[in-house]
Amino acid sequence: MLGRKQELAELDGTLEAARVGSATVRVLEGPAGIGKTTLLDAAWDRAQGFERLRIVAREAEAELSWAGLASLLLAWPDAADPVLAPIRAVLDGEPRSLLAVGSALHGALTRRAERAPLLLVVDDAQWLDPPSTAALAFAAHRLGADRVAVLVAQRSGTPRRFGEAPVLPIGALARDDALELVRSRFALGRDVAGRCLELTGGNPLALLHLGAALAPAQRRGARPIDPVQALPKRLADVFTATLAALPAATLRALAVLAAGGAEARLESVLASVEAKPADLAAAEEAGIVAIDGRPELVHPLWAAAVLEHIGPVQRRRVHRAIAEHTSDPDRAAWQAALAAERPDEGVARALEEVARRSASRGLSVMAAQAWSAAARYSETQAASCPREIAAAQASWDASLPGAARELLDAVIPRLEDARERASAVMLRNQVRAFTEDARGAALALRDEADRVRGAAPDLEAPLLCEATIAALLAADGTLALELSSRAADAAVDDAQLGTARVLRGVVATSRGQGVEPTSLQLLERFGSAPPVDPGDPEMEILQLAGYLLLVSERWPAAERALRAAVGAARRRGRASVEAYSSAWLAELEFRRGRWLDALTGATVDIALSEAREEARGALGHAVAARVLGHLGDTEACRARAGHALRTARALGLDSITAFAHAALGAGALAAGEVSTAAAELGAVWEIRLRGGLAEAGITWFQADLVEALVATGRTVQAEEIVRDVARNARATGGAWAAAAAARGRALLGKGSAREAVAAAEALPAPFERARTRLALVEHDRAGPDEVGLGEALATFERLGARPWAERARARLGRGGEAVSSLARQLSDAELRVAMLVGRGATNAEAGEQLVLSVRTVEAHLRSIFRKLGLRSRSELVIRVTREEGGA
Q1: Can you name the residues that pair with 27 across neighbouring β-strands?
Q2: What is the DSSP track for 609-639?
Q3: Nearest C-alpha neighbor of 728 from the set 484, 546, 553
Q4: CA atoms within 13 A on the CB side of 386
C-alpha cells in the first residue's frame, strides 16, 4: 500500500462513520490497474468486527438483468433470510418494480447491520447491469443512521453509477512511491526502475507485471526495455507474455472464466472446450486465478487479456459452450450472440425474447439493449428495422431520449413500408416534442398523417393525436384545434375517436371554451374509475384526463387519474409519464394548499430529470419554484424557475415557459418587487395572446398580474386582463376565473370587496382566498375587519407563507414574527419524515413508506425536534396538522 496513506485514511473514516451509525457511500474512481481493487481489499481487511459482503461485476454479465444482485445473494450469509424474498423472486423471473427490489435490498442491508456493522464492497461497478445498479443506488441513497459502509470502485471515464455519492479519486503513485514499489519487489537498479515508471505512468498493476516480465539482462540494465506507445498496449504486452507460458488447456479454462462461464455449469462448459477444473492450477500458480470454492480471476483486466489472447475462433467456441450449458435463457441468448460469426436470425429471435421479458418486468433499459442487439443480428433489413424501432421505443420509455433519437434517425431513411415508417416517425416526433422542438414536431406529424392517408388510413388519427399533444406543448391553440378536429374525423374505431375527443376537449379548454360534454364524460369515467392495470395508450389518456380534470377544477377525479397514471408508469418503467404526472399532482396539491406535498411531488420530476437527462424536469422545477417563492425562499425560487425557463425555451415548450414565468412573478410579488412581477407575469400574458393558455385554470397568473399592474399604475392593461378572465369565467363556469375577475374588478375600483371575497370563498384554494383578503386591504379597497384579514393571516401562518404573513401582520398592527414553514426549517429528508409522523405514522411505518431504517427515522426525528423546539410527537402532530390542513 505504498503511497496510499491519504486514501487509506479516507477509507478508515468511512468505516468509522459506519461503526457509530452514520452510513456512508464512497466511490473509488480511477483508470484500470490503478489500485482500486487493492484499496477495497485493504478496507476489507481493516473492517474488523464488520460483516462483509462483496459484489464483483463482470463485463461478460453487464447485459444480464440482475446479475449483480445474484452475485450479492451468493455472498449473503443466510440465503434463506426472508427479507431477501423479493430479490429471490425477481431472480426467478417474477416481474417486480425497481422500487420494490431497491426497497427490499435496503431493508435487507439495514436489518443485517443491526447485528454488526456491515461493509458492502462493489468492485468494477462500470460492468454492473442497469437493474442491479438502480436497485443498489436506490438502497444506498436511503441509508442514514445505519451501520453500513458502501464502497464502490469504478473505472474513470465511465458513467457515474452512484451519482450523489462522494468520489475518492485514485491516481497514479507518486514517483518515489512507485520507484520504491518496483525496486523492492524486483531488486531493480534505479535507472531500470525509472524506465519502468516512465513506461507505465505510475500505474501499479502495470508496474508489477512489467517488472515480473523483465528478462534478467533487462533487470540488470544490460539490455534495454523496448519503448511502447500506450498503457493498454503495455498491459496487453505484459499479460501476453504471462499467458503465452501457460498450457493450452489452461488457456481454454481461463477463457471460460473470462467469458462468464463460472455462472453456468462450469465442469460441463470446460469439458466442451476440452478442459477441466484441474487445468486452472497453472493459472493459480501464475497469480491469474484465485481458487477458493468457485474459481475467479484476480483482476478483471485478465478477462480482456485472455479473450484477446485466444483469438476470435476460440472465443466463439467458448461463448457457444456457455450458451449450451446455462439454464438462464437470457444468459444463453447473450452468449449465443457473442458466439455468432455473422447475422443469425435464431440469435436475433432469442434476443428479442430477452427484450420482451425485460419489458414485462419494467426493465426498459435492458429491453432497449436487447432489441438493439437483436437488430444487429437480424439477417434482413425487413427483420432488423422493426427491432430498431422497438429499441428506440424502449429507450424512450426509459427516459433516454438521446438513444431513441439516434436509433430513429438511423432507421427512418431505410423504411419502405408506409406503416412501419409512420410508426417510427410518430415515435421520433414524440421525442422531438418533449426534447427538441414541440411545434416542429406537430407540423412533421401532420405531414406524415397526410402521407399515410391512402396507404395506412388507420394510422392517420394516431399521428394527428400525437401532433395535437405537440401543439399543446408549444401552446399553439389554433394549430391544436385544427389537428384534434382532423383526428376525430379520421378515427376508424371507437378507441381512436375517444382519444381524439379527449384531446379536442383539452384543446377547447386551453382556448378558454370550457370542456366539451362528450370529452367531459370520457374524462370523468377515467377519473372516477381508472383502469386497474392500464396499457400504454390508456396510460397516456389517464395523464391527459388528470391534467384536464385539474384545469377544469374537478380535483378529486384529477387526483385519482394522475395517481393511477403514476402507478402504472412506475410498474412499466415509463419514467417520462411518471415524472410528468407527478408534476401535475404537485400542482394540484399546491392549489389545494398542501404545499409540503406539492414540494415532495415536484421532486419526482426533478429527480428523474437529474438521473436521466438534463433537458427534462422543467414542469417539476416550475411548480416547486412557485411554492418556494410564496414561502419566501426567493433564491431557491429563482434557481428552480430559471432551470425550468432555460429548458422550456430551448425545447419550444411555451406551455411550461408560462409556468416558469408565473413562478418568477409570484416570487417577485411575494418579495414586494412589483415591477419585476409585472414583467414576469406579462410574459405569461404574451404567451396567452399568441394563442395558448386562454383558459385561466391552466396557469393561475391573472390575479397576480392584475395586482402587479395596479401597483405600477398600468390600470388600462389591468382592465384588459380582467375582461379576458371574466369572459373565460362566463364561458366555462370556472371558479378560479370568476375569483380572479372579481378580485381584479375590486382592485380597479369597478367592483365591491364583498363580491371579491364571496367569489374567492367559492374556490377550494385556501391560499388564494387569503391572498384576496390581503390584496383588498393593501390596495385600500377594504378594511382588515371588513374582509376578515385575521383569517387570512391564520392561513398564511399555517402554510408557512412567511412574506404574506408578515404583510398581513403589519396591516393588522400585530407584533411578533411569522412562523416559518417546515419546508424552510427542515431538510428534504426530515420534511418527509415529519409529514408522515405528524400524520400519525409510527417510526416503523414511516421507515417502510420512505424506505428508511427505523434508526434513520429516529435520527431524523431527533433533528426535527431540535430544530422546531418540540418535545413530543403530539406537538409534531399539531404542527404538521396546522401547516398541512388543506382547504
Answers
A1: 152, 167
A2: HHHS-SS--HHHHHHHHHHHHHHT-HHHHHH
A3: 553
A4: 12
Between these two residues, 609 and 416, which has the higher pLDDT value?
416
Between CA 354 and CA 759 the distance in angstroms is 59
**Top-confidence residue, 213 or 457:** 457
- 757-761: list long-range contacts, CB under 8 Å, 24+ apart: 757/787, 757/788, 759/735
Among 565, 573, 568, 536, which residue's Cα sits nearest to residue 368?
573
Beta strands 24-30 and 167-169: pairing type?
Answer: parallel
For 312-334, the pLDDT digits (tens) are: 999 999 999 999 998 889 999 99
Question: Using CA atoms, how far apart are residues 703 and 715, in angstroms rounded to an integer?
Answer: 13
- Res. 832: pLDDT tops 60: yes
Burial class (CB in 10 A: 0-12, 13-18, 19+), 675: exposed
- DSSP for 108-119? HHHHHTTTS-EE
Q: Provide CB contacts within 8 A for 237, sequence distance 6+.
A: 213, 228
Query: Which helix (DSSP H) or strand (DSSP E) does residue 167 occupy?
Result: strand 167-169
Q: Rounded to an integer, what distance in angstroms lies between the CA atom of residue 87 and that of residue 91? A: 6
How far is 233 from 381, CA to CA, in rounded Å? 38
pLDDT of 887 strictly over 50: no
Question: For residue 325, what is the DSSP state?
Answer: T
pLDDT tens-digit series, residues 475-516: 888 899 899 999 999 999 988 888 888 888 788 877 777 666
Report the candidate in 712, 714, 658 with the shortest Cα–Cα distance to residue 688: 658
In 10 A of CB 748, how many CB atoms? 17
DSSP E strand boundaries for 582-735:
none
* Residues 6 or more apart in contact with residue 179 via CB below 8 angstroms: 190, 193, 194, 197
Q: Name 365's Cβ contacts closer than 8 Å, sequence gap at least 6.
A: 130, 131, 394, 395, 398, 400
Query: CA–CA separation, 855 vs 286, rounded Å?
Result: 47
In whole angstroms, what is the distance from residue 415 CA to residue 88 CA?
43
Residue 297 forms beta bridges with which residues? 289
Q: Which SS3 state, helix, strand or coil, does residue 849 take?
A: helix
Most confident of 302-311, 389-398, 407-416, 548-557: 407-416
Please give the C-alpha separations between residue 208 and each of 203, 238, 700, in angstroms, as whole numbers: 9, 10, 67
- State the helix-helix crossing angle for 654-670 and 460-473, rounded to 10 degrees: 20
Radius of gyration of the chain (CA): 32
Q: 592 pLDDT exceeds 60? A: yes
Q: Which of 596, 620, 621 is nearest to 886 (CA)?
A: 596
How far apart are the C-alpha atoms of 779 and 157, rounded to whole Å? 60
- Tens-place pLDDT, residues 681-694: 999 999 888 765 67
| Other CB atoms within 10 A of residue 99 CB | 15
Confidence band for 605, pLDDT divided at 50, 70 and 90: low
In single-letter form, the type of residue at position 249 comes to A
Q: pLDDT band at residue 230, thresholds of 50, 70 and 90? A: very low
CA distance 821 to 28: 39
State percent of the chain over pLDDT 70.
Answer: 91
Provide the CB-side half-sphere exposure for 821 (13 A, CA): 29
* 16-32 tens-digit pLDDT: 999 989 998 999 998 88
pLDDT recorded at residue 487 = 94
C-alpha cell at 226: 523496448
Q: How many CB atoms lie within 10 A of CB 503?
A: 28
The Cα–Cα gap between 540 and 563 comes to: 13
Residue 799 contacts residue 883 (beta carbons within 8 Å): yes
CA distance 194 to 162: 37
